[in-house]
């Protein structure tokens, strides 16, 4: 079944042309079912690209999804047109004031890894988001910096700087095949990684509330479950398109920045050759499993979520 998107959101036509089932709000309202309400708190500069990546994954399940876009209240995007933000995004302050509830929330990463969390301009509001999820969201998925921020806020898990960027596609081990979030996963998983910071496995292991579901000998912990806060934290990028790492590499090369060729991404690590996507199936499995787990456990009456 489809994901519900506004007809004029760029993702509507992009995903339709890819074969993803999308539905307009008017058509969805005619169906006598309750769609899952999934929101995306988008902290990335390239809003449209990020919308497409996550909508593609959560729109591939057999369930109807009501997809909502949220932004920080007073943080203005410099990389996305103002009319797009005005048309499709709601300020968190307005969502908070409305009292409405959600089955799921994805909090994206942000290119501010070098800053201590407390120095991020919207940190105070973001901590309000984290607290709000405990009463207004059934399940939260923190991605990359968003996941590290949640783990720091709820558990004091430290974000450590790296001396060089963790950049490429790294092999990961499936540590809990019986987890409902890893149904159908192979024992060995390739995951794109792109970050200048890390959380360390020994510190995760010393935090009883956190369980490592997927980890890499090279790139460290990847997917953590935080059952006490009904949350998952993923530090790497299952959602990336085939060329996202290439785009990041080309951007840094063009800017004259020191950047290593992303490992195990290009054939023979040769950036003149086109990369291939070897993580797509696991990306769909992960987000499909998350949606399914929400469907199995959420309240039919939205007002009872978090109650």
So what's the overall shape?
globular
Radius of gyration: 19 Å
Q: Tell me the structural class.
A: alpha/beta
Give the CATH topology. Answer: Rossmann fold
DSSP strand count? 12
Function: Transfers an acetyl group from acetyl-CoA to L-homoserine, forming acetyl-L-homoserine.
Keywords: Acyltransferase, Amino-acid biosynthesis, Cytoplasm, Methionine biosynthesis, Transferase
Enzyme class: transferase
EC number: 2.3.1.31
Outline of the structure:
This protein has 10 helices and 12 strands. This is Homoserine O-acetyltransferase.
Structure description:
This is Homoserine O-acetyltransferase. Keywords: Acyltransferase, Amino-acid biosynthesis, Cytoplasm, Methionine biosynthesis, Transferase. It is an enzyme of class 2 (transferase). The chain has 10 helices and 12 strands. The chain has a single domain, classed as Rossmann fold (3-Layer(aba) Sandwich). By secondary structure, the chain is α/β, with parallel strands linked by helices. Helix 4 links the parallel strand 4 and strand 5.
């Amino acid at each position: 079944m489809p994901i519900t998107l506004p007809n004029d959101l760029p993702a509507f036509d992009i995903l339709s042309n890819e074969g993803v089932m999308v539905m307009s709000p008017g058509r969805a309202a005619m169906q006598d079912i309750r769609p899952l309400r999934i929101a995306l708190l988008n902290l990335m500069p390239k809003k449209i690209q990020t919308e497409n990546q996550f909508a593609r994954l959560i729109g591939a399940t057999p369930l109807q999804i009501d997809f909502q876009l949220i932004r920080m209240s007073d943080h203005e995007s410099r990389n996305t047109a103002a009319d797009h933000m005005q048309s499709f995004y709601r300020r968190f302050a307005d969502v908070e004031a409305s009292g409405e509830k959600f089955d799921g929330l994805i909090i994206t990463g942000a290119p501010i890894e070098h800053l201590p969390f407390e120095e991020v301009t919207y940190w105070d509001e973001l901590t309000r988001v984290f607290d709000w999820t405990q009463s207004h969201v059934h399940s939260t998925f923190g991605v990359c910096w968003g996941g590290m921020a949640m783990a720091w806020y709820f558990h004091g898990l430290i974000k450590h700087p790296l001396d060089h960027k963790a950049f490429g596609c790294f092999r990961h081990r499936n540590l809990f095949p019986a987890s409902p979030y890893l149904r159908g996963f192979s024992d060995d998983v390739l995951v794109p990684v792109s970050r200048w910071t890390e959380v360390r496995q020994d510190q995760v292991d010393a935090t009883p509330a956190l369980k490592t579901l997927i980890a890499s000998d090279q790139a460290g912990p990847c997917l953590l479950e935080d059952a006490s806060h009904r949350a998952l934290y993923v530090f790497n990028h299952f959602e990336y398109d085939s060329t996202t790492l290439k785009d990041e590499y080309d951007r840094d090369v063009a800017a004259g920045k020191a950047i290593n060729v992303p490992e195990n991404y290009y054939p023979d690590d040769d950036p003149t050759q086109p990369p291939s996507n070897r993580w797509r199936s696991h990306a769909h499995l992960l987000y499909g499993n998350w949606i399914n787990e929400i469907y199995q456990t959420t309240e039919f009456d939205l007002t009872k979520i978090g109650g």
